[in-house]
Amino acid sequence: MRTSTRIAGVLTGLTLALGGTAALVAPAAFADIPACTQMAVQAGAEMTDSVTAACHRGVVGDLQGCVSGLTAAGVPGGAATGACRAAALEPR
Q: Helix or strand or coil: residue 57?
């Protein structure tokens, strides 16, 4: 195998490997926990560790766990769902 072909293959593999790693990290980078917690507080909950933990669940895609956590913290159902959906969105 020619050296130039081998180098091109290695660079392609490296690019794909790093691109895959970036895709796994990207959702967390775009998460908006402050928006989630702010919506929960505006809906009547106190800013506690349980509210923050619930919003973290929304970031990783556990919408039901996030809603359950916020509801237990005193956020009404509709507001909890909205806050959890905001957790997974890009910050504004």
A: helix
